[in-house]
């Protein structure tokens, strides 16, 4: 009698996503940057953030800071600059001035010298001294905890205010930079033609329990996975949920 043979059971390969060729990616990004991506369903958005949370339960800002004032300064400096570039310049600056009073005392010339490796450093130096003076004159040297008051400070816009409110004051705000704008549009979580539209949509569609860390999950996803030139769809934890037309079909 012939002996029956048992074939070894092979594990199913996990499906991964690939990306289209360069021309296809450029065309897809040009289209989605106009807010034309299909809207991701609410159930998929909830699942996406569940996965983000599982991968990184407590994400943090990558900017170096020691108190509310130094965070505010770091975020102002990060406009049109990388966090890494800001972090190379700020330790020496903060060693010399980590309060508004010390920043004013340091003066424009010395502040400028500390941050000259950062883009737009001359204008940023003026803003740092001016916002320090305003903090002393109008807020007792303390960083205010309202968007309106923050946006009245020189060099502080809505994005900077939202970062400070989220990181320092634990408010569930989302600061839409180039990374979050890209992720919101590519994935279909929050299609929009401008940062404010994307921000307001994200605030509507992200489940409340994920809002506190949503800003950091999205920015880190855009910085390290859903990168501008060639997103790493093959490593993306939400590739199967993403609506980006530059993504090739999922393959085993």
Detailed description of the structure:
This protein is an all-alpha fold and 252 residues long. It has two domains: 22-59 and 173-235, Endonuclease Iii, domain 2 (Orthogonal Bundle), CATH 1.10.1670; 68-167, Endonuclease III, domain 1. Helix content is 52%, strand content 0%. The chain contains twelve helices and no strands. It has helices spanning 22-32, 42-55, 68-77, 83-96, 100-106, 108-114, 121-139, 147-151, 158-167, 178-187, 195-205, 211-224. Helix 6 (108-114) packs across helix 7 and helix 10 (178-187) packs across helix 12. The longest helix is centred in the middle third of the chain and has 19 residues, at 121-139. The radius of gyration is 22 Å and the shape is elongated.
List keywords for this structure.
single chain; 252 residues; mainly alpha; Endonuclease Iii, domain 2; Endonuclease III, domain 1; 2 domains; elongated
Q: What's the order of the H and E elements? A: HHHHHHHHHHHH
| Range of helix content | 40-55%
Percent strand equals: under 5%
The assigned structural class equals mainly alpha
* Morphology call: elongated
- Counted by DSSP, the helix tally is 12
Biggest sheet architecture:
none
- Could you list the spans in which at least 5 consecutive residues all have pLDDT below 50? 1-14
User: What integer is the average pLDDT?
Assistant: 91
Fourth-level CATH superfamily of the largest domain: Helix-hairpin-Helix base-excision DNA repair enzymes (C-terminal)
Specify the CATH class of the largest domain. Answer: Mainly Alpha
Compute the number of strand runs: 0
Total individual domains: 2
Question: Which CATH-level-2 architecture of the largest domain?
Answer: Orthogonal Bundle
Here the CATH topology of the largest domain equals: Endonuclease Iii, domain 2
Query: What gyration radius follows from the Cα positions, in whole Å?
Result: 22 Å
**Alpha carbon gap, first and last residue:** 39 Å
